[in-house]
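Could someone model iron/sulfur cluster with this protein?
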Amino acid sequence: MMNTRRFYIYTWGCQMNEHKSEGMAGVLVRAGYLPADDPAHADVVLFNTCMVREKPVEKVYSEAGVIALLKEKNPDLILGVGGCVAQALKEKLFQRSPAIDFVFGSSNISELPRLIEQVRARRALGKPGWVMAVDKIPDKIEELPFLRASRFQAKVTIAEGCSNFCSFCIVPYTTGLLRSRLPGDIIAEVRQLADQGYKEVQLLGQNVDAYGKDLNDPQITFASLLRALTEIPIPRIRFTSSHPQDITKEVIELLGEENNICEHLHMAVQSGSNKVLSDMRRGYTKEHFLELVEALRERNVNVTTDIIVGFPTETEEDFQETVDLVKRARFGGAFIFKYSPRPKTVAFYKYRDVVPEEEKQRRLEILLTLQKQITDEENRKRVGATVEVLVEGLARQKGLLMGKTRDNRTVVFEGSPELIGELVKVRITDGSVAGLVGELSPGPSPIRGGEPHDLTRSLSASGEGQGEVEGQGEVGVRLGL
Ligand code: SAM
Ligand code: SF4
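Reply:
Sure, complex below.
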């Protein structure tokens, strides 16, 4: 019976949440479940939620309404909600949406099969199915049997939580303080992925540059971890997110060396006004940020960013400072968000939400137009170059493949689907705001990668703006990343 049960996971939010969903999938597969290709074919649906902005929270309730309709046809269907929203709202979720059967915290992933059985047992006894498990010692990452959505690209969490407490951000309250994994465990995991034939590893942390600060050993830093990973025979290592306050000279130098660390850095600036940056408690100035960008540009690193418009203390002059910064930094891409007041944060209590919605929208559109123009110009500069591309899958355009350059630009080109998962050489023939267009170039035989997979659909569905672009921009606007 057990092995015929199927699950479907909706994921909202950043790559760290996508990776958490891989952990949930692994736990369920270990318990005998199989992934479903559609929630209508599932016995268990899980929502892995995000609370960084308000809109995704609303989306959780509207999607729960959709699942309620499925339950009318399949009364045995079980809906569980986990992630940040579950962690913060707990039993309030049941009150708002009766379709939800159980709520689990970020620390209770390994308990999923037991929680599901508990709901079933309660139902069999005619009791309400509501079950909650939120407060517990966190699961050790090493103990989660991740079912990776790709056989050639792997996400590896290096640290959970965040101790920065930016004034607008809910993350430290929902995920706790910085908890770095031990370097030996990370290195062993990456080595194992290399042995399994993975082509790319993405290291994840809310602020990767703070890695190790909680381990009380000055030898353990993000730079020392990266340096160790350059020794592992895996073609590509990426990481996200970097923080302008904590990134070190050593990390910037590693990005400029000939090694397996890709020339892309996602480093959120949030604002170009020193006053707003200070009110946001970001710990750096516009000038320092631009110096970092300059040092990275010298090393041909593609810098992408996050920006918030309409922070409560942002005046028109402050906004113009951000416009100026965007013109000078010439980001390869940006996620631009309208400020969203989050409970528990300093900005929520200190300032409330004072910039009117129409004004936030106006500022968003100005930055969007500007960033689109810059992305377009920067992509056009790549025409004529021959670049290494990791083929990620089929492009939206029929008959074409899509992949990513080392510096994280999207390329579409003609080729056989057999190339999915391989590293190929592509000559760039066109560039635009949408990305790069190219043609396969003869070169050394590509290394064979994994097969295309069928798990991704089950792992990441829903969320506004989910598409071929990776990142955190489900409510903001994604551009050229
Ligand atoms: N830790 C990363 C950093 O500081 O660079 C950012 C992680 S956060 C989950 C992703 C992005 O969401 C932030 O960079 C910020 O632009 C945006 N964000 C966070 N809180 C927000 C809020 N209250 N309103 C609007 N955008 C927000
Ligand atoms: Fe949030 Fe700031 Fe931590 Fe990023 S660094 S997760 S924005 S508190």
